[in-house]
Amino acid sequence: MSFLNIRSLSKRYGTVTALDDVDLSVASGSRTAIVGPSGSGKTTLLRIIAGFDTPDRGEVVLDDIVLADGQESVPAHRRGIGVVAQDGALFPHLTIEQNIGFGLDRRAADRPVRIRELMDMVGLDRSMLERSPDQLSGGQQQRVALARALARKPRLMLLDEPFSALDTGLRAATRKAVAQVLSDAGIATILVTHDQSEALSFADQLAVMRSGKLVQVGSPQHVYLHPNDVLTAEFLGEALLLPAQLDGGQADCAFGRIAVNDKDGRGPATIMIRPEQVVLMTSPGLPHSSGDVPTVEAVVVGLDFCGSTSELLLHIGGDRRISLRQPSSDAISVGASVAIGMRGTAHVLKR
């Protein structure tokens, strides 16, 4: 059952259309990630849900309560929605205890107990309560910001790129911790991010935005493996996009004749293969098949070392060239002959 419903939401700033007839539903206790390039409308959508801005048209309904209907809007402080911003936005002149308790009734007898419970909930040591924000790491500050947002027991949590300023390792650890806290609390959450891997790993529903529109919504696995179009395919990760000739569930392409997920399609099309589906072999003899994986011969004509992986430029007969990332430990060099093939089924993109 939907907990948050957004219907026909539109917003313009002068001549710029920030949101264009957006519809989105969020289930109770679920995690939704809204992902898209800068300027796609993600933050505008979040601000309207939070009550920081009003739509020109459309509705925002939370738990059967209308929060916005066109420019008629419930004020942000009456919506019961928690917000964690990119920088945490902690008050630098207050202690951690004062930051977390900022929205709590100062006269409440259980206020100190509640603050300590929140510290435990976000995985921070209670000894930090007397510190100031500048005495904490970036990850710790974001957890304090989360605790402050949780203090008022919100019905919905909005996360606006809260991990983008953190180092890579700390970012992943903080994201997992925040996801666990929100899941344990049963709070529906919307994360806005431009980081594809962050969105895919955090959410159980993924919404892809482009030019003010939601171009695809679904489970992260489905949207990643079955994107609606070329731009979505490329935005969500590395993708091999190949021209192909369809023929009833099969396609002739640079990989030879392979299976596709369109049994009825015939004629020219563009197909997508994710890199993890690609099989590359350097064994002597270069077999034209390896078990159930048909292969074609190729020559390495370019190589860029990228650390744990290397990007190979492969020539596959005629003027066909494709780029492919492989583990650097495979020690493939320019000029090497290889065999490449594909596991599974290629995805046919919409025309």
From TrEMBL:
Keyword Transmembrane helix annotated: no
Name of protein: ABC transporter ATP-binding protein
Family: Belongs to the ABC transporter superfamily.
InterPro entries registered for this protein in UniProt: AAA+_ATPase, ABC_SmlMolc_Importer, ABC_transporter-like_ATP-bd, ABC_transporter-like_CS, ABC_transpr_FbpC, Mo/tungstate-bd_C_term_dom, P-loop_NTPase, Transp-assoc_OB_typ2
Any one annotated GO CC term: ATP-binding cassette (ABC) transporter complex
UniProt source species: Metarhizobium album
Keyword set includes Ion transport: yes
UniProt xrefs under Pfam families: ABC_tran, TOBE_2
GO MF entries: ABC-type ferric iron transporter activity; ATP binding; ATP hydrolysis activity
Higher taxonomy: Bacteria, Pseudomonadati, Pseudomonadota, Alphaproteobacteria, Hyphomicrobiales
Domain called ABC transporter: residue spans: 4-236
SMART domains assigned to the protein according to its UniProt record, in alphabetical order: AAA (SM00382)
